[in-house]
Hints:
- By secondary structure, the protein is α/β, with parallel strands linked by helices.
- The protein contains 21 helices and 16 strands.
- It is globular.
- The two termini are 14 Å apart.
Amino acid sequence: MKCINKAISLLLITSMCLGLTACGNGSSKAAEAESGDGVITLRILENDTAKAEGYLDELINAFNEAYKDKGIVAVDANMDEYSNLAENGPYGYGPDVLYQANDKLMTYAEDKHILAINKEDFECSQYIPDEAWDAFAISVDGKQYTCAVPVNVQEPMLFYRKDMLPDNWEADWDKDGDSTPDFLQNWSSLYQYSQQIYSSSNGEKYGLVAACNDLYMMAEFMFSYGGYVFGKDGNGVLNSEDIGFGKGASAKGMLGLRQFAGVMNEECIDDSIGQNRYSKVADGTYFCSISTPDTYVLFHDRLADVYKEEGLSEAEASDKATENLGMIELPRTMPADGNLSENGDTVDTVVMGGVNGYGISAYTEHREACIEFVNFATSKEMIKKRAEILGIAPTRSDVAEEIGGVTEMIFGSLNEGHIALMPSIKAVDQIWDPMRTLLSDVAKDAFRENKGEAVKYADEASMQEALDKASQSIYDAIYTLSN
């Protein structure tokens, strides 16, 4: 084990030293290092939304224009956003620079597929809070290294049409008189409002419909009740032997998820909602859905399409969509006993969050050029452009302050404990499939009941047993099946 740690440490130290000399005043040291061998080509892997909405093209074109006389060209890696660097990198098929969430990037870092960087070499570092950098920190032999540059912070958000709020919401859905609908503030009211919509429309319209099989979107049904991903040891280091999805009163929360699924469309049990939520919120089939801030543009554009079909010009439709698309944090309270039908004692909602950023492949032949690209991509101008096109919550404080939006709110929630960041260790790779299977089955149970079929999770004991089995599956995947 000591030898392995030493090897990782040596690689990271070597990478760090390379990084220390790589970035500076904007001149291309990578290009200077290439002697008459043509132009350096960097392959850039971005997420699918950035590609679909044209941001990657904007970024690449701007970089190539700025570096046209410096011997570096950036191109789309032309790979799926979930391409596996660990499998592709060693054979030369992986990207040079990749944009992904902290859990994925740091899994690569733990296995030496990502280079360590010196964050002070990046102009953006002075504007990014420590909480964001911490998501990309790794400890080796007692030393801390940083392995990616934060770009935006994520948490599940509620998307809805402001112009589809019920006419009577102030009288019937604002019991505390704070001028905000109760169903945007607590889960019990959101369930009750969803139930009303479903019943009054004879099942043709819905309140909240979300991907119940998506752990990232649904973790609040465990985390709010004392559940967690991994515990920590006495030194505050994540302990992947302590798997916490079934801890605390998580079984109560999961019964609440099962209850809510009963007033959703059956698409909530699989991946189809991930694709149609944008259009279904836009056309009013769903009052609201759950997604991340960087998908704001997809909700906006589908809503603009609805307004264009109603006869508005493209500019008018876009402006009206901006005016009427609501994006807020998930309701702040859950029922303490998990029963969404009642309005009793509550617990604070805790969601799963993450930080997306740029990492540099350990397999690139052009480290310095990659650092040049990341420095350019995380500049104020490009992060502002990314926010304008995609609606992200940027980690750069100067951009966040200039454009407004939700960044300050998200970091506030993070500091207050309402957001639990995805663990940045390799073991997190093993949580998704077992929890996805369980979450889907729990949601499906609501439809079994509606169809008069036998149910699997009728009480807290059966739900606890299912959570314990899922946790054991995760443990086995980490410590048994992998050996």
